[in-house]
Amino acid sequence: MKVGYGLGTTITLTTFGELNDVAIDAAMTLVAEYEDRLTVNRQVSEVMSINHAAGDHAVVVSPATYQLVKRAVLASRENFGFNALIGPLVKLWAIGFKAANVPDESDIAARKQLIDPMQVELNDDQLTVKLLQPGMELDLGGIAKGEIADRIADLWRAYGVASGIIDLGGNLVFVGESPRRVDGQWVIGVQDPQAERHDEVGRTVLPACSAVTSGIYERFLIVAGKQYHHLLDSRTGHPLQTKLAGVTVFARQSVVAETEAKRLFFAGEPIPNWEKQPDIYGAVFVYQDGRVVPVGVHLQA
């Protein structure tokens, strides 16, 4: 096992039955390479090149970056709540920072013009991305960890890792068969989004998969006795109004689990027949009043 820092979070990589750390070291290198391409916390990266060129010209990016940008933009265009262009609105509210405030509706309306995912031009042949309006910003933070976790899992399989756990700050991927059960399945704890990390509402048993939680956490703003959560809804320009505290999704791919966790969280309740999709195992909804509702999975105390 190795613990490191990257993607703005603590990374824990564990393999079982391995005699050396070659596969783990290769995974850490892969994380660093992805972060160099995707980060918006530095002035230089492929994503920042796109942002710097907003309203001016298209930018050529690497195939891996292009495919992730395309996935994020197409998901944003579904208009279920996830929006990879929401940065200008987040900066306006600034919840969790010293400048936190409740903006004027006119300012919110103006920023909403800068977060429209239809204003992104994608060229599959040239692998170019163009943000059509000056001031637009692309941020893949809401989907990148899932993609990177999946690529680590692919890397480990290529190295012949029979069993392991990838933890990218809460994006979990269970690789191969669990060494702790005869049937090879994994016992997976479901995070209580209203408690400390590793406090669980229950456990479920599943084959190799990814588990991702989306929810309202500690950042909020209180003005005139009203509390505003940091999770903004790009459809309204305001913090999401929900009775949910969080939802955990179990899926074969981590990037799918990450996207679907946001879909269900913004829906605020189970979506009929959602769990019947291919490569989806199920979800667990945790409400602010303490109710826990599993969908498609069996939850044990």
Automatic annotation (TrEMBL):
GO terms for molecular function: metal ion binding; transferase activity. Mg(2+) binds at residue 142. It catalyses: L-threonyl-[protein] + FAD = FMN-L-threonyl-[protein] + AMP + H(+). InterPro entries: ApbE, ApbE-like_sf. Its cofactor is Mg(2+); Mn(2+). Its EC number is 2.7.1.180. It comes from the Bacteria. Belongs to the ApbE family. This is FAD:protein FMN transferase. It comes from Lacticaseibacillus manihotivorans DSM 13343 = JCM 12514.
